[in-house]
Amino acid sequence: MEAHTETTTQAGQILASATGGKRRAGDRIFSNAAVIAAVTVLAILAGVAIFLIIKSAPAVTASSSELPEGKSLVDYIAPLAFGTILAATVAVVIAVPLAVAVALFISHIAPRRIANTLAYIVDLLAAIPSIIYGLWGIFVLGPAMVPILDWLVDKLGFIPFFEGPASVTGRTMLTAGLVLAVMILPIVSAVAREVFAQTPRRLEEGALALGATRWEMIRMAVLPFGKSAVISGSMLGLGRALGETMAVTIILSVSGIVSFDLVSQENPTPIAANIALQFPESSGIDVNALIASGLVLFAITLVVNMIARLIISRSNIQ
Amino acid sequence: MADTPRDENPAAAFEPDDQINPLGGGAVASGTLPSWFLEAVVGGAALLALAILLVTGSFTIVLLFILTFAVALPTAYILSRLTETRRQAFDRLMTLSIVAAFGVAVAPLISLLYEVVKRGVKGLDVAFFTESARGVIGAGGGAQHAIIGTLVITGVATLISVPIGIMAAIYLNEYGTGRLRRALTFFVDVMTGIPSIVAGLFAYALFAIFLGPGIRLGIIGSVALTVLMIPIVIRSAEEILKIVPNHLREAAYALGTPKWKVVTRIVLPTALAGLVTGVMLAVARVIGETAPLLVTTGVIDSVNTDPFSGRMQNLAVYAYSEYKDPGVDVQASYDKAWAAALTLIVIVMVLSLLARWIYRRFGTDLR
Q: Does the domain at residues B128-362 carry the CATH identifier 3.30.420.40?
């Protein structure tokens, strides 16, 4: 398709130049405008990195006594980075199995007639603004989680994640992780679904012809074929969860500690939530420190997203 | 469970509607139970669960869902195990599990929409649309300033990102070659993953360098949203330009039309409905953004229509600040937060449904 387009384009250019002698002014202007737009987009991405670096530089050179909480920049950002990664990991662990099941349901189990509608409904989850997830998380899911948290601490308290004491408000890492999981589920399942649906018919029918049940066909033909899509979709979801701000800001009762306890009142603070909470009231060097933490977040998500995109472009997904 | 069928008819396996169709759904590849076996088990289990919950008086939809599948999963497995092979029983178990997982995934959406509508309508009155929050410390007042701010900020962001986005998509599809094209394709994908708060910090840093620290303007928010919108616009525009048939371009070239006229007179008009749809979906994606605006446009209680001077409120930040810093009447503030949430959801839904409708109604059939 692409090669074909290029040939046509060349042919068109030859014809166009044959009739006009040389490239016309309109052509020159228009193609230059297109190139400028393309370069602008790349410049914006570079600009994001450059301006964040410029604005975080004062925080890097400042002594630790000037910085917020009197800590060095590394000591300030490290617990925040921990909170970011913990929340995102909880979200991915919950979302990926569900997303794979949703993708399989839409691509291989639901009747064809309603599959598109179901896919649209799942995509709606991605369209809902994150502030609304935050309000829902704190007013609806949080209170509903309280008995579950008690139960977890009671029965599974020996696992460090559920050490407790259980929060009485439901404002915990687990609640935030659940909400993040709901928010990233559509992207993970959309990537997986697209590739599951492309499983070659001969593989599926071959498995069935050999007497496989539908589940065996899925396990032996569809899942191996879609493995890299599930991985890259999960990475994309991880990237979303890392950078997601409002839902986490509202739900967590932050305290900036480092702890693997998912069910207690005291939570590690993710970078994004810390920025949203502190930035409106900060001034001077504190702002630079916050921007430096934003730069770290940008770097983490950039790496995660680039790995995901490389996996997608390396595999045969189109 | 008495109504669960145990069809003993072995011929069912060979009926034509039970054929091997991996994508058709419904029919199972093989087995002696009828194709509606699983549906019947789930239906029976749901009735049983409903009866139990009504008798014990603890009915909630969540419990009904959990109990239904807690009954249906083992029942289906055991019944199938008794009449079919172990592998077929496992197949039915997995099928039901996947259906249950889909239910779990969609449940938050239903709960969320229900709660937003239920709690949002309380705060929605005429004043919500006609009054600002200026001088309001308790109940009363409205979100007119936030609605105006949302429209201005998103409007300016759209004005900036649509020309850049569509020209970049034209570059990718009509002109691009070599390294720049590959770099752009890759980095546009990467750009879709920029956290929205980082986009906000970028816009703030950009303006703070020129206008001094602590700056808050509507236009800064627009720039932040632009960073988020451009990759979405490029992606959708590129997809739609890609499916404009080549024979249209070839025919135009054959008549000696210069390339820029082919693009502006043939390609773009053909793709117009798709482009509009893509832009509307991009607007729907950014109109509810909170984090980037929280750090760039600030919080204010009165109407401001000028993006180049002073702070500007918008609906999402309004919902957040009504929740975070409620007035004297806390419940009234929460009601206003939910009303803003409902307004946002309605805007997003209308935009995305309208976008799809435009594509169906006016889209040239390109395939």
A: no
